[in-house]
Specification:
With about 100 residues, this protein is mainly alpha-helical. It is about 55% helix and about 10% strand. Helix 1 runs parallel beside helix 3. GO terms for molecular function: nucleic acid binding; RNA-DNA hybrid ribonuclease activity.
């Protein structure tokens, strides 16, 4: 789950700093979607002991136009399925780089 939390943090920070691509201008709402229900619940937990999550909460409190939302995994949502496919390809690339004997 920590990896998913870091991705949320990166997306929130990137949107605030203008480094994340967005079609939105000004005060329009930006939604950051994740298929990690536990990550969303952790971000919503006001009693979390995790500093990274508290940092995300602080950024979201200061930037009310950024929302973190959950989407059901493997339910056919195009963007989510594309993200899963890219993540799987990245894992294969990394594994091949780490273990040259895995190459076919």
């Amino acid at each position: 789950m920590e990896g998913k939390i870091r991705k949320i943090s990166h997306s929130v920070s990137g949107r605030i700093n203008g480094t994340e691509r967005s079609d939105h201008q000004g005060n329009e709402i930006t939604k950051i979607w994740t298929d990690s229900f536990s990550s969303v619940m952790t971000v919503l937990d006001p009693h979390t002991p995790h500093q990274l999550v508290r940092d995300i909460q602080s950024l979201l409190t200061q930037n009310r136009n950024i929302l973190v939302r959950w989407v059901k995994a493997h339910a056919g949502y195009r963007g989510n399925e594309e993200a899963d496919t890219l993540a799987q390809k990245a894992i294969i690339v990394v594994m091949k780089a780490l273990k040259p004997s895995m190459r076919t």
